[in-house]
Amino acid sequence: MAGDTVNKLKVMFIASTGGHLSELLELKPLFSEYDFHLVTEKTKSTEDLKDQYGSRLDFLVYGTKSHLLAYLLKFPFNILKSLCIFLKVRPAVVVTTGTHTAVPMCYIAKLFRKKVIFIETFANRTTPTSSGKMVYPIADKFIVQWEELLDCYPNAIYGGWIY
Hints:
Largest sheet: 7 strands, parallel
CATH architecture: 3-Layer(aba) Sandwich
CATH superfamily: Glycogen Phosphorylase B
Low-confidence stretches: none
Mean pLDDT: 94
Shape: globular
CATH topology: Rossmann fold
CATH class: Alpha Beta
Strand order of the largest sheet: 3-2-1-4-5-6-7
Strand content: 15-25%
Order of helices and strands: EHHEHEHEHEHEE
Distance between the termini: 29 Å
Radius of gyration: 15 Å
Number of strands: 7
Oligomer: single chain
């Protein structure tokens, strides 16, 4: 497999677990076009991804803002772990469907002058997400799945639905 990736662009695909990851995995047909790496949070529902992606997968610690204290402790750890993963993978492009897990990686990519592509979630038709608002100013391409969101993100690209 290493020979297959020699001349391919390194692309990191990252998303939080759940719906954001489901949307990101809809882009799986693109994985074969790139030297790809997948990053998500480790949960019982994502552990089996290791069987499918092996060394092309890294996990961050799962956290949710509904458990704020635990989340505030895990978030700085995930920022450091994101930096380590970024330095290990060294992607040219980071593609994400969000959310909080992906924001630090997007800023790390920009710090290293790499491209960031953010795809706003299908779940929000008329209102921007917090992660979308944070990444929009630094994204090289910002894609929305609903035309209504062009009012919130005037420089975005309407890409239609991933599903």
